[in-house]
Specification:
Number of domains: 1
Strand content: over 45%
Protein name: Phage tail protein
CATH class: Mainly Beta
Organism: Plesiocystis pacifica SIR-1
InterPro entries: CHP02241, Phage_T4_Gp19
Shape: extended
Number of strands: 10
Distance between the termini: 31 Å
Structural class: mainly beta
CATH superfamily: Hcp1-like
Helix content: 10-25%
GO molecular function, one term: structural molecule activity
CATH architecture: Roll
Length: about 160
């Protein structure tokens, strides 16, 4: 049986290279996004045995508080946007004027239409790494920023 375009569109995984990142509604080109994780802390409860024949306490694991995510963004250092976007944002954190922003990462299909989106709520920068400098390389200068956030939500677009 031949595989149709509709079958591929509905049953095959989406490629990871076709995505868009929006910071406060403005689209910014990033070469890599990582850390879009939704994690819960785990609490251990020990329950006393109910009969004299039981051997030790019964251990129950339960989810508790959501862990605050750390998201990493990497992008090429661009003259017009790098200082204005990332450096000014982390610099405001250094002066105790914490500017929290929502970040939306949209994974798109082959036509560029968003299929799934992750929203990073109330993100603020905690680290900005300058590019690695190497006189023997002609690679693009890549800067990276780490963010902490309240939570991440995921939705179909």
């Amino acid at each position: 049986m031949a595989v149709t375009e509709d079958t591929i569109r509905s049953d095959y995984p989406l490629p990871v290279y076709n995505y868009r990142v929006e910071i406060d509604g403005e689209t910014v080109a990033f070469s890599e996004v990582s850390g879009l994780s939704i994690n819960y802390e785990v609490t251990t409860y020990k329950e006393s045995p109910t009969s004299s024949n039981a051997a030790g306490p019964r251990i129950i694991l339960m989810p508790s508080q959501i862990q605050q995510p750390t998201v990493s963004l990497k992008k090429g250092l661009v003259r017009k946007t790098s200082i204005a976007l990332l450096y000014n944002w982390i610099n405001s954190t250094a002066t105790n004027v914490i500017v929290k922003k929502d970040i939306v990462v949209r994974l798109c299909d082959e036509t560029g239409t968003p299929v799934v989106s992750w929203t990073v709520h109330n993100a603020f920068p905690t680290k900005l790494d300058a590019p690695t400098f190497d006189a023997n390389s002609n690679d693009a200068a890549i800067e990276s920023m780490e963010l902490r956030a309240d939570k991440i939500t995921m939705a179909e677009s």
